[in-house]
What we know:
The structure is a homodimer. Chain A contains nine helices and 13 strands. Chain A is α+β, with helices and mostly antiparallel strands. In chain A, a hairpin with a 6-residue loop joins β1 (26-28) and β2. β3 (43-53) of chain A pairs antiparallel with β2 (35-37) of chain B.
Amino acid sequence: MNAEDQLIRRISQRVPSQSGWASGTLRLGIGDDAAIVAPRGGVDLVLSCDAFLEGVHFLAKTHPPDSVGYKSLARATSDLAAMGATPRFFMLALALPVERSGEWLGEFLRGMGRAARSLGMRLIGGDTTKSGAVAINLTVLGEVASGRGLTRSGARPGDLIYVSGVLGRAELGLKLVLAGKGRRRSVAAIVRPHLYPRIRVALGAWLAGRRIASAIIDISDGLSTDLTRLAEASGVGARVRIGLIPATPVPEPASRLLGNRRLNPLQLALHGGDDYELLFTVPRRKVKRLRAAPGFAELTCIGEITPERHLLLVDRHGKAKALKPRGWDPFRR
Amino acid sequence: MNAEDQLIRRISQRVPSQSGWASGTLRLGIGDDAAIVAPRGGVDLVLSCDAFLEGVHFLAKTHPPDSVGYKSLARATSDLAAMGATPRFFMLALALPVERSGEWLGEFLRGMGRAARSLGMRLIGGDTTKSGAVAINLTVLGEVASGRGLTRSGARPGDLIYVSGVLGRAELGLKLVLAGKGRRRSVAAIVRPHLYPRIRVALGAWLAGRRIASAIIDISDGLSTDLTRLAEASGVGARVRIGLIPATPVPEPASRLLGNRRLNPLQLALHGGDDYELLFTVPRRKVKRLRAAPGFAELTCIGEITPERHLLLVDRHGKAKALKPRGWDPFRR
């Protein structure tokens, strides 16, 4: 067995995986040229791919390797949650400098294994190669009842806009990590959403299964950018009330460690990336039913969809200004 | 629309793609958080992923960008051919330095579009990000009749071993390219298999559809390495007759341009990577039926499967020596 095949074996031993012939939806798992799946009748397969690159999405010297493993799979899976799909399988294309194929890889796989177990996913294929920097590419597969998959394009004027959780937390955590303060015990809980994001799988599946949401997207690049995407795809606009946005507080230890820089919770919440909360719209007649949603207490209505195709931020005096997409954009010049 | 979304739109305009809702196997194409597919009853979905990285698999200054686009998709699809699947869809995760997002990207997409058209594939999703070097990750999807997908693990003692095409051609082309001679007109035809590999889709699908092959793998890392994989997966060994191996000739212009270095065709054929020919085993009772295979004239029987679990190379005097996997292995130290 050559060194690459040994590495593949090591990966599939450390991460929940399925090799060889299997029964059920998965027919053939990791270890051959390709995997084979056969969804049951009445089930659609949902697929997405996502790159997580050293120097772009994480820094190898700054970010703990188990976080890199955990987060790379979690963030890829967030795209399945945003379709209302239940995550099932994943493939890992891993490019690795030889010097990271030892202890670093072990910790990386531990984090990825933890994410896979908590998300209910199994590794069914992949590809490994050496490279100058770590490059992680994940393909994730989920299932959704036929025709129930939710898109970003179904929002209609009058629909209410909801977000899950608190926004801006991952951006605040990132600032601490980049300032070299990420390992301080006093900010462990503040840094966690950046290192180990929670993915709203149950909420997404519930919204799709009950046909509650008219449109949905995950907030990966910031509320301003992802709401713009949802509105553009739906051919609508939106009015968001500033006072309703569940912006992260900036706790004292964080602001102190960041040199008392003035951190504006609203800016963090509007433009901070990596939260992986769900942003979705609900027709008014269905809003009552939302009370039965998993994690309903963490849902916040932040505004409504409008027919005019622009996004407005409304302050407490009723004054409106344009909301521009100013979240993460790798190709902005 | 932000710069990343503009780039995604540009990609999907330049490459055969499907966006939005669709009918048939593909339910939802590129442009949302994820794609949705629903294979017809009686059809299995075959999935594979593959990385193609600057500095590892190609050199941005040496390899024409349209070859990078063409080859990245072709080689990923070779894994589908090696299962007997018919290629249908692909997802592209593209990491790109900003300075390559202009003309280079245009040429890259032209090559990828040409591969997609010739392979009958449509782009259904992806991910783009900036990076210091070009990193291409492809997820490919194909279809095969339920239960007909071919693996590497079905070879049995007595089965005959076949390869398609001529081996070592891509390695010879690589040597010319690395020597800076790849653009000479006199070697254009010799370099082509390295830059624009042909994928044996029709042969793979035929072998699976008729249940002719007992095991199959594509030769991506060299005959010695991929035959070792097939034999290990099947729990068997193999005897290969040196005189039967369809080794590439080394034409005069190539050997002259390479400084008359002694190039051993057998070594090129045994250990050269990137040929993407199919290596498969056929039970003796089915060999006659092979005559109806697409491209039968290009198939060569090179030996047979043995119960003893090692690989032997037999010369014309009947003398046997061990065949070790000495093809491409990114993690060999």
